[in-house]
Amino acid sequence: MKYRETLYANYHTTQSGRAALTDAKSLFEREKWRFEKEILPLINLPKSARVLDIGCGSGSFLKALSDKGYTEITGIDLSEEQVKLAHQLGVSQVQQGDLIDFLNAADHKFDLISGMDIIEHFTKNELVDLLKLIQNHLNPGGIAIFRTPNLDAPMATVYANGDFTHENYMNASSAQQVLMACGFQQVQVFESNMQIPYALKEIIRKVIFFILKFRFKLNLFATGRSTQNVLISPNMVIIAKNHG
Predict the structure, then answer these.
(1) CB of 42 closer than 8 Å to CB of 190
(2) Nearest alpha carbon to residue 99 among 110, 89, 88, 91
(3) Can you tell me the distance from the alpha carbon of 46 to that of 96, in angstroms, rounded to the nearest whole number?
(4) pLDDT digits (tens, 9 = 90+) for 208-234
(5) Contact criterion met (CB below 8 Å) for 64 and 36
């Protein structure tokens, strides 16, 4: 048996739900809040846009899209447990299956294909094949949005190695490199949202992060490296536009 069959069969129980230290509904709402702050402001598409969310888990991003008015939304996830949970939480647009098979069988293209915390689960060879497949299934001018761990972040291993199923790690530069090589244009990489939903804690967090960022830039300066295109947020958000 391949490790993925074992790990993904009960992924929520052994990883996403376990790591959250909370019940499934609370985790779902917290993830949805994060997507509303972090991802939705970066999407400038008509509400009729056709959207596919790969590795969608419990469907929290789809719910954020639905609440924003998007109607043509579909999610695909390999884990039977995650799909069942999504349906229990009211996200009926989630279906179980292999995303490669799903894309190969699709009879239409999409305006947006998103992948939140998913592309790190593929080997380099698998990821290149997947990105080419995604690019081929986007309409002209369509966009792909991914969130993935940022290897340049302080204590990056906490995020990169916190999941046994992770296979590859990137920083902003290598993310741009691989997506451009796979046919995407205008590849942009942003810091992930680190906001805490409590005013006092958020102020403290901002101050500490400012200090960390300053020290990080000093380290780069001392080693003769430019700070341009270097991020230190735990995750990074990648936006890539298809040609057209």
Answers:
(1) yes
(2) 110
(3) 27
(4) 999 999 998 899 889 988 888 899 999
(5) yes
CA Rg, the chain, in Å?
Answer: 18
Rounded distance between C-alpha atoms, residue 80 and residue 84, angstroms: 6
CATH of range 3-195+231-241; options 2.40.50.140, 3.40.50.2000, 3.40.50.150, 3.10.20.880: 3.40.50.150
Residue pLDDT, tens place only, 38-90: 999 999 999 999 999 999 999 999 999 999 999 999 999 998 889 999 999 99
Closest CA to 103 of 160, 148, 161, 144: 144
Say how far apart CA 232 and CA 244 lie, in whole Å. 32
Residue with tokens 């888990």: 57
Helix residue ranges, H only, the chain: 3-9, 11, 17-20, 24-38, 60-68, 80-88, 99-105, 124-136, 156-160, 172-181, 199-222
Domain boundaries, the chain: 3-195+231-241
Position 44, amino acid: N
**pTM reported for the whole predicted model:** 0.89
Contact 64, 35 (CB under 8 A): yes
Amino acid at 205: R
Sheet holding 235-241, edge to edge: 94-96, 73-77, 51-54, 110-116, 138-149, 235-241, 185-191
- Determine contact, residues 166/227, Cβ cutoff 8 Å: no
